[in-house]
Amino acid sequence: MYLTIDGVKKSFQHNQETLTVLDDIHISIEKGQFVSIVGPSGCGKSTLLYIIAGLVQPDDGAVRVLGKKVTKPSPNRVVVFQEDGLFPWLSVTENVTYGLKLKRLSKEEIKQKAHDVLKMVHLSRYKNAYPHQLSGGMKQRVAIARALVMEPDILLMDEPFAALDEQTRLVLQSELLNIWQKTKVTILFITHNIREAVLLSEKVIVMGTRPGNVKEVFSMPPATRQIVPNRETLSIEQKIFSVLQGEIEKVLKEEMGDDYSFQTNRDDSDFTRHLGSHL
């Protein structure tokens, strides 16, 4: 197996208490696979992604790529965050090539790589623009281009479309699918959006509430690689929602008291309308 998470555990100190965020996580991902992780807020999805990136160290267990233990960040594992994190004083091209310059590549090679990746994300016309001149969706495309230009083996995406409007989100979902199909980079995608996870991924991992653990893994049929839901994908969404329902209720009861009851008597039209929203 290409990427393996073996028995990862992680705790943090909070107000003199020890909070266990991740508990005995086991996940296997094949090379070139698109995998999404969904789960309630606070279940440790982002923490797990940062451990895979080498930005956070686990208390126990290990992350391995081709059998080699991950102990620190690497340009082979690049993170795309929810916020674009662009340098406002640099142009689109300068933002995209920032990491390449640190690798001391030739000017010609840097120029060609920037040209190729900006063409891939449809931003060639804006190569000299600055972040304040771009829309939110365009900024996120620059962030994705900045990650892709490093030619990583693994692309780690932490809710990259969460702050975007629905129309822009759909466009970027389609573009991400096209990029993945062209590059076959291994993608681990964190999202609260069940529909997004189902339509983009080959595998969806459902995590339970804190301490985070793997509740169930769903393999997607090849025909679901699209951004428009159909009867089959809606059925899978419903199964995932059913797994998450009890976990969501645990979180809500913790916040609102034991008398809270999660509404389950919604009709099918209501269900399919809301599955694309955040949990």
Point out poorly predicted stretches.
265-269
Secondary structure tally: strands: 10
Silhouette = globular
Instruction: Quote the beta fraction.
Output: 15-25%
Instruction: Decide which structural class fits the backbone.
Output: alpha/beta
Radius of gyration: 19 Å
Round the mean pLDDT to the nearest integer and report it: 87
Indicate the percent of residues in helices.
Answer: 25-40%
Separation, N- and C-terminal Cα atoms: 31 Å
Q: What's the helix-strand series?
A: EEEHEEEHHHEHEHEEHH
Total number of helical segments?
A: 8
* Biggest sheet features: 6 strands, mixed
Strand order of the largest sheet: 6-7-8-3-9-10
Description:
It is built from eight helices and ten strands. The protein has helices at residues 45-53, 92-102, 107-120, 136-148, 166-183, 194-200, 231-256, 268-274; strands at residues 3-14, 17-29, 34-38, 60-65, 68-69, 77-80, 154-158, 186-190, 203-207, 214-219. Strands 6-7-8-3-9-10 form a six-stranded mixed sheet, with helices on both faces. Strand 4 and strand 5 form a beta hairpin. Helix 6 runs antiparallel to helix 7. It is globular, with a radius of gyration of 19 Å.
